[in-house]
Structures are given as C-alpha cells and as structure tokens.
Amino acid sequence: MLGLLANNTSGPVAVELLRYAVPLGVGLASAAFLSFKISSNGGYSTDKSIPTVRIRSGDSTHDKEFNESSDEFLTMCEATYGPVFNLSIYGQKLTVVSAPLAREVFMSDGFSFTDALDDVSGVMTFMMSFVKSNRFDDNKMIHEVIRENLTPNLPLFTPRIVKHLTENVERDLGHCDHKLVKNPTLIMQNMIAQAMADVFMGSEIAKDPEVLTTFIDAAFDFGKVVQSGNNKDFWKNLSIKFKYGTGTSPMMKHVQVLVRAATPVVLERRRQEAEAAEKGVEWERPLDVLQKLLDSYDRYNFVDLEDICGQVLTLILASVHTTTDTSTNLLYYLACFPEHAQTLYEEQQRVINEQAAEREAQRQKKLDAGEVKFKQDFVGTDLDPEHDHDLAAPTVKKLVYMDSFVREVFRFRIDRLSLIHSARQSTTLSNGMTISKGSKAIVNIRSCHMNPDQVDEAPEFRPWRFVGKSKAATKASSDYLPFGMGKHACPGRFLAIQELKTVGAMMVARYSKIEMEKPEDRLKALLSQIGDPVDSGLYFTSRA
Ligand code: HEM
Known about the structure:
By secondary structure, this protein is of the alpha+beta class. It has 22 helices and 10 strands. The strands form 3 sheets. A 5-stranded mixed β-sheet has the order 1-2-8-5-3. It is globular, with a radius of gyration of 24 Å. 45% of the residues are buried. The structure holds protoporphyrin IX containing FE (HEM). Residues 24-25, 27-28, 106, 113-114, 139, 142-143, 146, 315, 318-319, 322-323, 326, 482-484, 488-492, 495-496 line the site of protoporphyrin IX containing FE. One of its GO terms (molecular function) is heme binding. It comes from Lunasporangiospora selenospora.
C-alpha cells in the first residue's frame, strides 16, 4: 500500500521519529519539545521590573505546576503578576509575554524566531550546509518566492494538488467498511508529500519514487541531527560545523536526489525555451517552484542547480511535516465531532451542486449563442462536464464552514506556551518593560487564543464561530497565531490551508464515519502537538 515509502518511514519507527523531526516551520515544534536542547543560553530578561513567578515549595522549576494544568497555572500567573513574567520552565529561563503585548513580539524587529530556534538547536549551521546562496538573509528570499510565485498561483496548482490527494486516498485508504487505520499519519504524509513534490518540483519530477522518499524523509533526517543535544555547546557546535559545514551534511543525499531527478528535466526545459526563442514563439513556462527559482537565478544570485535544490529542500522542511501533522490532526477532529462532519459534508454538496449548475448554465449560454455547436464539443475544454463536480480552487474558497472549522482547530489545539523569540536587541514593550538583549521571550498563546475579551466561550470548540466574520483560516492576527504574525508570518499558510481544506472536504465526501479506535484518547487527540503522535488509530466507513 505504501510501497513508495522508504523503510524507515513506514512502520512504528516513523511515529517515534516524528518526535524528533523539527521542520523549519517550527512554529509547531513546541517549547517542551525543544526544551531538552538548551541549558544556559539566553535566559529571562534582566529588567528588574519583570516579576519572576514564585516556585512552588518542593519544586525546583515551574514545570510540574505547569504540567498539572497549564491553563490554571498561566491564568494564575497573569492574575498575580500581569502580562509579562519570568518562568523557569522546559529547562530554560524564559520571559513570558501575554496578550495584549504578545503581538509586539511578532511586530518588532528586535525579536527573532529563527535566532531562538538556532539558539536552542544550532539549526542554522546545519541549514547552511546544504544551501550556497542567500544564507543570511533572514528567510527573505524564500519568503518572496512563496509570496510572489506560489500563493498567487494557488488556483492553478489546486487541480494538481486535488489529483494527488485523491489518488493517494483512493490507493491507501480506498473503500472502507469500519476499517482500522492504526497510523493515519502515514497516509497523510504520502498524500501531502506527493502534492508538495508536484508544486515544488513539477509533475514529471514528482513521479520519481526517490524524490517522493526525499520529500517524506528529509524532515526526519533533519530532526535526527537537530535533536541530538545542546548544539549551542561550544564543542558540539564546532563539531557540527566541522561535520556538516563541509558538504558532508546528511541532507546532501536529499539534495543529490533532487539534482539527479531535476537535471534532465531542466536541460529539456532549456532546450524547449531556446527552440521557442528561435522560432519567435512564447514558451509556455512550466508551473512549479523549481521553474520560478530557475527564472530568478540572477535575481537571487543562485550558484548552481545544487544550490537551487538545496533551497527547495528548505521549503520541504518547512512544509511537508507541518502540513502532514495538521492534516492528520484534522482527521481526529472529524472523528471527535461527527455531528460537525455532517454539516461540512452538506456544505460541500451544496457548493459543488451550485458549481455544476453554473457550469451547465455557461455551456447552455454558449450553445444558445452558437459559440459552440454541440454539447460534446465541450469535452476537453474548461467546461468539460467531467469536471463539473471537481474541487476547484473557487469551490474550495466557497467552503466557508470548512474554513471556519480549520481555523477553530488551529485555535483550539494551541500549545499554551510557544514560538520562542530571541531578543536581538533590548526592546521595550508598550507597558514600559524591557526584554533585554540576548534573553528569550515566549508567547503565552493561551492568553491570545483563549482571551475572553476577544473570543466568546473561548474554552469551547465551536467550529462555526468564524463563519460570516472576516476571519479566514489564513488570516494571522493577535488572537490567532498558529502561523505567527507580522513580517515573518508563515508565507506558506495559504498553500497549507488550501491543502487542509481540500483534505477535509475529500474525507467528509468519502467517509460517512471516522471514529476513534480508543475514544478514551479523545482529549489527547484534540490537544496533541507536533512530534507527539496520538496512540489511537481511526476507523473509516465509506459513504454508501
Ligand atoms: C500547517 C502548516 C504550517 C504551519 C502550522 C506553519 C507554521 C509556521 C510558523 C509558526 C512560522 C514562524 C512564523 C514567525 O516567525 O512568526 C513559519 C515560518 C515559515 N514557514 Fe510555515 N507553517 C506551515 C506550512 C508551511 C508551508 C506549506 C510552507 C511552504 C510552502 C512554509 C514555509 C515557511 C517559511 C519559509 C517560514 C519562514 C518565514 C520567515 O522567517 O520569514 N510553511 N511557519
């Protein structure tokens, strides 16, 4: 069934490895997960006006109290100490910044998420080992490439994404009669990797089984290095630089897979482009990120194809694992709230029926006007009746209940403390407190997502709360931070949400029931974080 997967991602080992995979879109990698990698770097702000929360007698840190009930503990801290306070938690000394000041952490240039990630894991040295250009640009190039090329072309990418998702779900899940899938992540990762491979490298290269394996395994291999201890330790860091700074990075094998698969395709594209130029006709540029990078060769001073494939690898690390994790989590929400799955199904039926009727009306209009002679002349055109019921981009856009559901899942499933930022310079918040240079601020996401002033009945999962509001699942704001916000807000969120909504729509269309294998794990499933897979499998039952 999952024949294309490499051995190490197709069994229980994969689940274990998930714990260690830290993709670049590390917003999801919880502070708890990163904790064991840091001991003394940074620390809390030296500003004396920031209170330090008293440690409970008998404890040596705040971990135990936090773990007993993070909501209660954080509410108590805010009530007693105000929105900014210091904690000794996750093996670190962190300054917690809560709403309404949390947004300032994202909006100020004084704070960096990437620096914090590097501080706790030494990840940048490793990242630098497989790209040759744009190394210290603070993700500017990759951000631009996504913003200017990928996001605006999403409507064109959507049919290809849908095709891969559909093919995969039909092959790996198919018709089910209360079929137990022990590890739905494996199905999701295959689907997402294939769709991403098509978008990033183009349809032809995406067919290559080794490329697909790279899309799946890269984050695991990356995680294995990044998780291996306190990389900021001087000797450890030096050894990482020595080991991975010289082209011997374990990621290079993935770059080489991409280079090998891309080389003939790129040569053929060059040939076609030259031929078109010779004939004076316009060459129809292939639609994928690879082509966009090739076209931007001079703009970004890329060094060679290996460099370009290294940049694609960065994108893979940011996208595949994060989107796989959230798609899998979405399935658990559908299982936990079957009554809402029915509403989502009905919405989809309605929207698709409207689409089909609209297309039929357009065909009729053309026939009436004599623009098209016979009905069968529409076959193979944009108005081919075969595609009347497809999930096209405008259709996915109209799934407002699905959008609200997805946003509510992200809101509800928050990691209470997350998105650590390093202070690049001393920065004074609007309440007068200063986060001193070199210290670490962590965002109290609970105070943002569960803020009773902004969110009605915040502790409740209310999936339709955003319907009719201008709060799309892609829209970052101070009460919705799964993608961060401000200048560095995740540029891939438009693609990620498009895929998530499509996965959700496909699943409710195909399966009348998705159920938890172990209903007692319900709460864990709802609140599980990346790298912390749920123990319970899922049962699937097809619609009649
Ligand atoms: C559900 C899936 C995803 C989640 C939850 C997620 C989350 C995040 C978060 C929290 C950040 C940090 C934002 C900050 O610094 O404030 C981030 C950054 C980033 N993400 Fe995503 N991401 C996802 C998918 C993707 C995808 C599909 C792509 C690529 C197509 C991508 C590319 C990036 C890049 C390049 C950055 C760095 C941006 C910068 O530093 O300017 N992500 N992501």
